[in-house]
Amino acid sequence: MGSRGVTIAEIAEAAGVSVPTVSKVLNGRKGVSAATRRAVERLLDERGYERRGRPGPGSGLIDFVISSLDTQWATALLRGAQAEAARLGADLVVTTTQGRPVGTPDWVEHLAERGSDGVVLVVSELLDAGRAELERLHVPVVLVDPVGSGSQPFATVAATDWAGGRDATEHLIRLGHRRIGFITGPIEQVCHRDRLDGYQAAMRRFDLSADPDLVRHGNSLVDGGRRLGAELLDLAQPPTAIISGSDEQAYGVYQAARERGVRIPEDLSVVGFDDVELCQWISPQLTTVRQPLAAMAREATRMVIELSRGGVRPTPRLELATSVVTRASTAPPPGTRRPGGTARHETRSPA
Amino acid sequence: MGSRGVTIAEIAEAAGVSVPTVSKVLNGRKGVSAATRRAVERLLDERGYERRGRPGPGSGLIDFVISSLDTQWATALLRGAQAEAARLGADLVVTTTQGRPVGTPDWVEHLAERGSDGVVLVVSELLDAGRAELERLHVPVVLVDPVGSGSQPFATVAATDWAGGRDATEHLIRLGHRRIGFITGPIEQVCHRDRLDGYQAAMRRFDLSADPDLVRHGNSLVDGGRRLGAELLDLAQPPTAIISGSDEQAYGVYQAARERGVRIPEDLSVVGFDDVELCQWISPQLTTVRQPLAAMAREATRMVIELSRGGVRPTPRLELATSVVTRASTAPPPGTRRPGGTARHETRSPA
DNA sequence: CTGAAAGCGCTTACAG
DNA sequence: CTGAAAGCGCTTACAG
């Protein structure tokens, strides 16, 4: 690996200070003027000084950070990341944030001390402050399904959420639906915002006014789906179809429907989002917008590892295609003569 | 953390050789007699010498090794391990073996180089050779749901599999079943063997001859359940109930039953094993033997971390209780007058 | 705040 | 095969 690494002596020489002074800066000791400290830190940074004790780049560890592992969405992503890390000979450290903000100085310092070759972040709580901290780590960071708009200093991997929202809506419109409800997870997250935009675009394109009453957002788990689904079903003019922000949330809609004696798909069509295993277990099997979750995580992990090995900067933003997987939860709306003159526009059997 | 760690000089002194000689042994250099090398290695070992470059104990990393992450069983275990590691301030490295043997010299050397504070092993393929290698690591190892009999040099955490098999069987017997089929995963694994023993004990206790034709084993995934379930349902005298080695396998039995027009639970009762999320998604909801998977992994992880921090040797074997969770897939056998005079003997709502 | 000096743990030639 | 000697990268205690 070329040179044996910069030494503290070289840094001292370059900074015009003594070796002990650099040592003090390195160890956060007192007794160094702010100006000197800053100058030395800059040099340390520039020359890529690697603390001998600390296993810097080359630890072989990639950090996979996700809000929680409690959903099938999360485990699908984890599987992809783990498989790719293994394939490329890296070890994957799995951390959950449990709602805590990401990129706190503590955590970044912990990563620096332990040694991390890169970070795959699947989190909604990335603080703006956290971004700056993370950049200080000097290891590649790739975001999966990132939140917040604003320019990212990091590369991102996502799905074509807008197209997914549009395709789900068109699938229902082609079946003959006109009153289509749309429920999503937290609307602050770009993926949900994008899908909603896709829905609205499809509705407009077919000259259907998107009744704002038919759009709800909240929790994307089963509970949220049950509550938001109930709200829609209890409207004076309920929708004949509901598109949901996740498969789990869609199952909550199933529950709300069952509680009201509404049959799926005879009285109500339901479309999920993600295509996790759940879709095939529940009855009727759930039509959904497939996100290639494992592939997204694989791609992000590959980017991080290749960058950590000196690869060139990849596409700053990668979007993998979604596709509608038609199963048994969607059908023409009640009262339709023929079962929707138009054929279902895409049928894919699950992998 | 007491002393600053053994130095090469101390080892040299103890071995009656010079510092450079110890250094050579440490770095695998030539020019050391076999006898000296051996003596030094032993001292290094005994005194717990920690190579400065290598982040030995204290890396804060715990390795979680599992055959694959593709089942809900696996992710339930992972969740428990991850949560406990986070709680105790350790980072969890997740590795899948994908059927490869565990404890190969390569892998052990990799762990040594990278630094690992301990290993939680959830694997069926632990080689006997691997055990010796793993012991050389000098970090705590705890097995979850271990395979093979023979005395383990490592602590183990498991569920009360024997009682689980017995309880599932008794539950069905109390409902009035007499012909009860039993299908399991690979019978080499002690957990499956133990459950089968529990089944046979219960059958004997109720003076029911366990027809060997009613016992099958193979793959514990959906496919396996479908195939093994089909074999039982196609018998001249098919069982009125089937106990399965996993919930996924039980779902395979659902498929086999559906393909033959056999209704669950009217014509056939089905009991699963594990109590993963799947049980609640499928229809009818699956009665199952609950294994506290997350708790098992938590316990194993806690043991490893505490041992790595100097805790005392824990119980060599820990078994957490299973319990029958009664849902909709079990009922009295067809042709029964009253719906089983005996009440279902345990009802637990899922967490 | 700063650095000359001593020291620590280890490695690298190299002489025997 | 073995180790005295020199050296390396860093830290520590202390004088200015």
Automatic annotation (TrEMBL), chains A, B:
Domain of life: Bacteria
SMART domains for this protein: HTH_LACI
InterPro entries: Cro/C1-type_HTH, HTH_LacI, LacI/GalR-like_sensor, Lambda_DNA-bd_dom_sf, Peripla_BP_I
Location of region: Disordered: 325-351
Domain called HTH lacI-type: residue spans: 6-49
Classification lineage: Bacteria, Bacillati, Actinomycetota, Actinomycetes, Micrococcales
HTH cro/C1-type domain span: 3-36
Protein's name according to its UniProt entry: LacI family DNA-binding transcriptional regulator
Keywords: DNA-binding, Transcription, Transcription regulation
A single GO molecular function term of this UniProt record: DNA binding
